[in-house]
Specification:
By secondary structure, the protein is α/β, with parallel strands linked by helices. It has helices spanning 15-38, 41-51, 70-74, 90-102, 141-151, 171-191, 196-206, 211-220; strands at 60-64, 82-87, 109-113, 126-132, 152-163, 223-230, 235-241.
Length: 242
Amino acid sequence: MSEIVTPYKDQTTSKKEQVATMFNNIAPKYDFLNQLLSMGIHKGWRKRSIQLLKEKKPKTILDIATGTGDFAIEAMKLNPEKVIGVDISEGMLKLGVEKINKLGLQNKIELKLGDSESLPFSDNSFDAITVGFGVRNFENLEKGISDIYRVLKPNGMFVVLEFSKPSKFPIKQVYKLYFKYITPFVGKVFSKDNSAYTYLNESVNAFPDGEDFLKVLRNAGFKETKSIPQTFGIASIYIGTK
């Protein structure tokens, strides 16, 4: 089981509750900080993640830890009948709904409050499932992945985009400095949450990336698992089929 890292060390509430509180706190600045801190690179990663589903032609897609809905919106390029996004943060979902309404996609994309470890859907419900920068926030990673497997249809594809840890010099050293010092400082200045972007660094360090995460997928039952490093290994796209 992976190590449990929480945003607020002085609180005794569960990781799930703390993560929901954290995202409610930073929601107003989340999209802005994503763009600033990643210098826009995350958009290319998101596009590549969704493109991996193209051959499957999924009609129903579930986007977990949907946040403000960027992955769900990107998934519309696959021309699905329905995309459902779930998240534990009401603050993020509120902004996501506003974004989707502005784009006129409210008939195609539905956002709802939901827990990744106890998804409110029946078995074999979705052709494809995505998670963008969300699996490291699961309180129980193995339980969350197992529930994702449960609601995915047979032969359905699961795509995860998550930060990983670069191993080559000098990217490894630059990345560590950036995540440890620059990201928390900028996040604190703009989001007014002292812990959120320190937690980002800690949660990335604690996350079992690469082959370790593929093992979690395989243990849950996923086949044809693969890890695709992005931008010198700063992030990785993981895929698996049921």
